[in-house]
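Hey, I was hoping to borrow your eyes for a little while. I'm sending you its amino acid sequence along with the C-alpha cells. Take your time with it, there's no hurry, and the full record follows here.
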Amino acid sequence: MQPKELLPAGDEIVTAATNLNCKAAILDLANPKDCLVWTPTDFDALRKMMTKLCGNNWILIVFAPQKQHKAVMKQLYNWDDAEVLLGTWKRYLAFGTAISKYGNWQFDYKDTMAAVLHAEGGDLRKVTRAPKSEAEIVELNVDEEQFKRCIAKHGGEEGNEREVYGRWERHPKRLQKLCSSFLHEDQGVILIGKSHVGLVWGFLRAGHHVFACDSSLKDISYLTKVIEILGKDARNECTVERQKTAHRPDRDMYHKLGKKRNKMWEYLFQGQPKTPFEHDYIVRKAMAQEAYSGYHKAQVGSFAMFVARCERMKFGGNQAMLMYDGYSKIAKEYDAWNPIESDEETETSDLEIEERVKRMREGMKSVPACNAPSLQEEEVRTKSAGASSPTHDVTDRASFIEHMQTDSLTPIQALENVLIHDNRQGFREKAQSRGNSVNEMRPDDDEDDFAVPNALPKLMPGDNIPDSIAQASEQPYFILDKVPEMTFDKWGHHILWHMDLFEPCIVQGKWMMAVHLTKGWKVRARLDGASWLKLAKSEIIFRVRKENDGADKAAIEEKARLLFECLHSKNRVEYKHGFYDLESSRSYKSINWKIDLPQAGHGVETIRLGCSQIGGESNTQFATSVGEAMSQTTSKIMEATEVPRNVDKFEMERVALCGPHPISTKENSG
C-alpha cells in the first residue's frame, strides 16, 4: 500500500496500531519523488493520524531531502502543540560522495531529520526515556559509517550479492539507537515507507513491534521472507509466529486466493486470448468458476467479480500479469477497498481445477435429494473442518448444495446461513425433526424429540478448548465464569486476573490474555513461565525507577529485586505495574516504591528498601557505600498499612517469605 493510504486511519488500521501498542512513527521522504507528492493537506492528516493511532503521547521522526526540507519543516512547525527538533542524517555511500550545490558553494549532501515530540500537557518526559547515565547524549546529527547492507541472497537467492535497497538504506543500528531514547520494550513503531529488513529485525530483537507500510510489494515480500529465515535460524534463539488469517466471507477473492492468484491469472489467460469471447477462454473461465466459487467461504459472486476485474486489466488495459496496483485501482472505483488486508493461508499454489471440479461433482452425486444429514455425519464434518486438505474447500461447497436440497429451508435461506451466519443447520423457527417418518410415528412420539439448546461447556482458563468455541474469528471469546487467579498446573505459571480489565480469552482456538484499554480490548499472547516472570520483573523495575527519579542504578535494581522476590513468593505478581494500584489487587496500598536515601554523617547508615507489598519495610545496615549495602541486604517485615491481623500468623508468613530477622554485621557506635 502507498504510505499516504495510512492517513485516513480506518478502523482496521487503528485496531492494528492499538494491538501493537504503537507510540512512534518514522516517515522517510528522503527520495525527492516521494517528498514532492505530499501536500499541506497530507501533513494535516498525518498529525491527526498520529494521535488516532498512538494516543496523545507520541514521537514522529521525519526524513526529508536537503533541497525540499524547507517545505516539509514549514508544515511540521505549523503543529503548535508539538516540539520540533532539527537534525541531519548523512547516509554512507560505498563509492564517491553526494554533493549539494548552492550557487558556487558545494556541500556534503545530508538528509534533513526532524524529531517531532507530542506530549499531553507539554510534559516531554512522557515520550522520552530517562538516560542510563548523566553523560548519555541523544545524537540528532548522524554521520553513518560503513555497515552491512541487505542483499538478495539474504532472501534465499543463493549467490546473489545485489543490494536490495541501494543508497536509500539507513544504518539500522544508528536509527535503532535513536529510537531507543524514546521507545520502551513492548511498544511498537510505524514505518511509513522504506521498511527495510535490517531496521525491522533490530526492532524485533529489541522487543518492539513493527507496523510496516511500503508501496513496493516486492520489498514487503522480501522483508517477510528474510524475517522468516532469520526466525528459523537457531543462532538467533527466537521464534517468529505469523498469525493465520481467518477465512472471512467478505474478504476479496484477490486475498482469498493468496499464492494461487498468479497461477489463476496464467490459467485463465494462457494462449493470450484477444477477447473474452474466445471459446477456449470461456471454457477455462467456466471451469475455474465451478472449482473456486465459494472458495474459503467466499460470498456469492466473489470469484466472478475477481475474474471481471482481471478481464478489464487484460483486455482493457493490456496488462501482461496480475499486479496489486492495477487490481486495487479497479476495485476502488466501485467498492470499498481495504489497503491493509492480509492474504488467506493456502496449502499449495497449485490450482488443481480439474481435480476440484471432479471431486465436487462426485460429492454432489452422493448427496441425498431430500433427507437432512444425520447427526453423525454432521459431527464428522465439524471435526474435519479445521484440518487442511486439498478436498476441504470442495467439501464446503458440496455441503452448501446438500443443505439447499433439504425440505426445511429454501436455497436462498440455506445459502445465507452458510455464508453469513456460518451455520449449516440454519436458523429456523421450529426444531428440525430427527424422529421417525409420519407413517411410523407413535401417538406421543413427537414429545420424545426434544429441542435441547446447545449449552456452552463450563470452561476454566487453561482447559482444553472444545470444538464448539474454537472459533476462527480474530475477536476474543471471554469465558462466563470469572476467576481471580490461576495456578501453575492450569496456566503454566501463577497469574492474577482483574475482571473487565485483564482477563483470559480464546482467540482462534488458543488461550490468550486480553487487556481492556480505552480504545478497546487488546489481545496478548499467552506467556511461558520464564517469560512471564521476566516481564513482571521488568514492570517492577520500571515502576521503581519511575518513583525514584535520579536514584542510583544499583539501589533501584536491588529495591526492585527485593520487591519482586517478596511479591513472587506471596503469589502477588501483577502483569502491569499499574495493576498494583487497583482496589482488586492483593497489594493495594501496601507497596512502598520509594527508596529512602541514607542520612549523612553516620558511620553506619540505614537504607529503607520497602518490601511493603504485605505491609512493611526492609532495613539494611551498612558502613561504606550503597553498592556494598546491597550485597548485605536482608529483609525485616513489619505490619504498617494493612488491617491488623494475627501477629503469630503474620510472623510465620514473614519468615517463610523473606527470611529471619536481620543480623547486623556492625553495631552503631552512636
